[in-house]
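Exercise 7. Given the components listed, write out the predicted structure of the assembled complex. Treat all entries as one system.
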Amino acid sequence: MTVSTTLLTVDELAPGKYWTRERKGGATLVGLGLVAAVLFGLIAESAEARFTLSDDAQGAALSINGKLGAVVFGAITVAAGAGLLAGVARRWFNVLLGAGVLGFVLSFLCWQVAGSFMPLVDTASGSLDLAVPLILGALCGVLCERTGVVNIGIEGQLLMGAFGAALVGTMTASVWLGVVGAITGSVIIAALLAVLAIRFLVDQVVIGTVLNLLALGVTGFLYERLMQTDAAGFNTPPHMQNLRIPVLADIPVIGPVLFNASPLVYIALILVAVIHFGLGRTRWGLRTRAVGEHPTAADTVGIRVRGTRYLNVLLGGVVAGLGGAFFTLVSTGAFGKNMTSGAGFIALAALIFGGFRPVGALFAALFFGFANKLAIYLSAIGSPVPSQFLNMLPYIATIIAVAGLVGRVRAPAADGKPYVKS
Amino acid sequence: MRTARGIQILAVLAASGLALAACGDAPEENAAGGDTAAEYSACMVTDTGGIDDKSFNASAWAGMEAAKAEASNVKTKYVASSAIADYEPNLTDFVNQKCNFILAVGGLMTDATKKISAANTGSQFAIVDSAIPDQTNVYPLQFDTAQASYLAGYLAAGYSKTGVVATYGGVNIPPVTIFMDGFVDGVAKYNEVKGKTVKVLGWDKATQQGTFAEDFTNQAKGKAISDTFVGQNADVILPVAGGTGLGTAAAAKESGGKYSVIWVDSDGCDVAAQYCSAFLSTVIKSVSGGVKEAVVAGAKGGKLDAAVGYKGTLENEGVSLGAYHEFDSKVTPELKAEIEALKADIIAGKIKVESAAAPK
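Answer.
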C-alpha cells in the first residue's frame, strides 16, 4: 500500500507534466479501440449478431451485423480515448473512460456473437449470481479495512457462512433460520479475528490465513462426519425462492434480472447503498474512517478506537455470513467441502480494485462476475478465444489498479496496524 | 506479552484447523502389524480428494474392501494425501511398511509413483488412470471410459427435445476429456444414423478445446456453466467435474425437468441421491471392480503383469452405462434397444471408439 501512496504523491506534486492520468488512460483507450476496430473488424464474420432479450434464443432481440458492430464500437472507443488525450475537463474522465471500455467490450462481443446469439437476461443474471457473494464479501472487507483491520479471512467467513446456512437451514427446515445460521458461523470467525487482532495485537495477515485454515478444517470435518453420513438430516437446506417485484419485473432485461431475484440479491444491493451512505454521512461512518486513518487523533477526541473496530469487524462478519448463505441457499442446494473455492480472495481483490469503497467494490464485483460468465459463454459457443484469458482478466485488472496505473487506490492509513494506547 | 499470548492462541487455532482437516479422513488402518506368511497387505494412497470423495478414491477403497471380503488373507489400509506434496512420503511410508501391494489413486500421482517405484523395484505398485511404461513393478489400472460415454452421447442425442446437448469438464486432463470425446462421438453416431443435426456444446474433439470449470469443488461455477448451456438451448448435460457437477445437478432438479443430467463415475442415484430426479443415467467407471480384481489376483499369488495391466471396457464391465432410474419410462424402448445394439457392436469390435486420451 505504501508504494501506491508514494506514487500518488509524486503525481500530485507535479501537476504541470504532460502525461497525466487522463492522457495515459486516453492513449490506452485509443490503442484498444484501434485493435477493436481493425483487428476484430477484420476477422469478424459478416453475419448477424443477435442479442436476445430473454434467457434463451426466444423472443425479441437486438441485432447488428457483426463486422459492422465491431468496427463501429471500436471507433467509439477510439473517440473516447481521443477525447481524453485532447485534455477535456477532468470531470468527464469517468464518463469517457466508461464509454471507451464499454465500446471495446461491445466490439469484442459483436465479433464473437456474429452468426450466433447471446441471451442478455441469462448473461446479466449469471453475472449477478457469480457477483453476489463477491459483493457481500467485499463489503465485509470495506467494513473491516476502513476501520483499520486487515481481513484476509473473508474466504473462511464465507465458507463458515455457507456451512452454517446448510446445517441450520436443514435442521430447522427454514430458509431464514438458515440465514441466521450463516451469520452465526461467519461471526464466529469474525470474532476470533477481532479478538486476536485488536486485543492480542497479532499480525493481521497471519490471523486471516490461519482463520481460513481453521474454517476449512472445521467445515470439512463436520461435513464428513455429519453431512456425508446423513445428507437428508444435515445437508438438504430449503431453497430460497425468488422475490418478484410486481410491475418492475416486467421491464425487459432489467426486470427479470434485478426485480425477480433472490432476497439476498436485494439485501446485497441495499447494503451497498446503506454502507456507502453510512460511511460518508453518519456519525458512525465518520468515526470509522477516523479510526482507520488516524487512530491516535480519534482517541484524543474521545472516540473509542477498539470499540469501533470490534463493532465493525463483527458487522463485517454479519455481511460475509449473508454472502456465505448465498452459496448453499440460492446458488446450489447443498454444502460441499471447500465449496467457496477462493471466492473470498476474489472478494478481497474486488475490495482493492474498488478502492476500499462500497460502490467501487460493487462495480468491481460485477465486473469480475461478468468476466467469469463471459468466459463460460465463450467456451460454450466454441469461441477461438481461450477462456483462460477471460478468467485471468479480473486479476490483471486488480494488479493494474493496485499498481496505480489507471485508478487511484489508497488503503486507509492505519490499515493493519493494531492500536496501542500510549 | 499480550502479543505472545495471541500467537499462542493462533497456533492452537492453526493446529486444530489442520488437524481437523486431516482427521476428517478417519484412518481405519488395520491393527494387525505383523506379517504372517499368508498375509497379503494391500495399501492405498488416496489423492487429495480424500477417502470419502464419492468418486474414484471412494470407489478404489470399495474395491480394496471387496477384495478383503473375497480373499481372506488380504489386509487393507490406506493413507490420505492432503496435498500433492504428500504423495511421495505416503508411498515411501508404505514401502517401508513392507506392503505387498501399493495402490496410487489417480493420474496426478504418476510422477510420484514413477520415482518411488524406480527406487524400490522389489515392491509391487499399481496406479489408477495412468500407466508407467518402463516400470515393470507398476500395474496400470486404466479405463476406456469413451466406450461408455459413447453410449451416453447416443442416449443424450436421442433423448434431447431441443437438439442441443452439452458437456463440460473439471480441468483439461485425459481422464476427464476421455468422457467428452466419447460423448461427442456418440452424438455424431446418432446424427449419422438418424440424419439429424444434434449439436454438442462445450467440447470440440478436433481441437481438444472446450468448457472447463478449472475446479472440482466449485458448485456455483457448475451452475453458472449449466445456465449458460441451457441459455443456448441445451437440455441434456454431462458434467465431468466431480463436486462442481453437483451445482449442475442441483440446478437441473430446481428447473423441474427443463433439462437433465448424465452423471459420471458412480451411479448418481447412489452417490447424490437427493438429485436422482435429475439424472437421466450415469457413465459408470468401475474403479472398484478393477482394484478388486488386481488385489485378489495378487493375493492368490498370481503375477500382476505391468505390460498387460487392467483395462476397463464395456466387455469386462469396467465401464458401463448406468440405470435410467426415474427416467426409465421416459426413454423410449426403441432408443434403449439401439443403445444395447451399439454396446454389442462396440464389444464385438464393429464400432471403434477412439479418443486421444484412451489408454493404449
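Discussion: Residues 2-23 of chain B form the longest helix (22 residues). Chain B has two domains: 37-143+289-312, 145-285+329-348.
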